[in-house]
Amino acid sequence: MPEMTLIEAVRETLRSEMRRDPDIFMMGEDIGPRGGVFLASEGFVEEFGEDRVINTPLAESSIIGIALGAAVNGMRPVAEIQFADFVWPAINQLVGEAARVRYGTNGGKFAPMTVRVPYGGGVRGGLYHSQSIEVLFAHTPGLQVIAPATPWDARGLLRSAIRSNDPVVFLEHKRTYRLVRGEAPDDDYTEPIGKADIKRAGSDVSLITYGLMLHHSLQAAEMVSQSDGIETEIVDLRTLRPIDAETILDSVSNTGRALIVQEDTGAVSVSSEVSAIIAAEGFFDLDAPVMRVNPPEIPPMPFSPLQEAEYMPSPEKIADAIRRLAEI
Amino acid sequence: MEQTEKPRITATGLVRPVSNGPAPVSQSNNGFDASRVPVLSESLDDSELFRMYRLMLLIRRFEETCGQHYSLGNIRGFLHLYIGQEATGIGAITPLEARDYIVTHYRDHGHAIARGLDTNRIMAEMFGKNTGLSKGKGGSMHIFDAPQRFMGGHAIVGAQLPLAAGIALAQQYMETDVVTMVFFGDGATNQGTFHETLNLASVWQLPVIFFMENNLYGMGSAVGRVRHRGSDFSDAMGAYDVDVVSVDGMDVLAVREATQAAIDQVRAHGSPIFIEAKTFRFVGHSFADPGDQYRDRSEVDLWRRRDPLVTYPKRLLEYGVVTESDLDDLSASVDAEIEAAVEFAMNSPNPDMSEAFDDVYA
Ligand SMILES: Cc1ncc(C[n+]2csc(CCOP(=O)(O)OP(=O)(O)O)c2C)c(N)n1
Question: Does the beta-carbon distance from A29 to B288 stay under 8 Å?
Answer without folding.
Answer: no
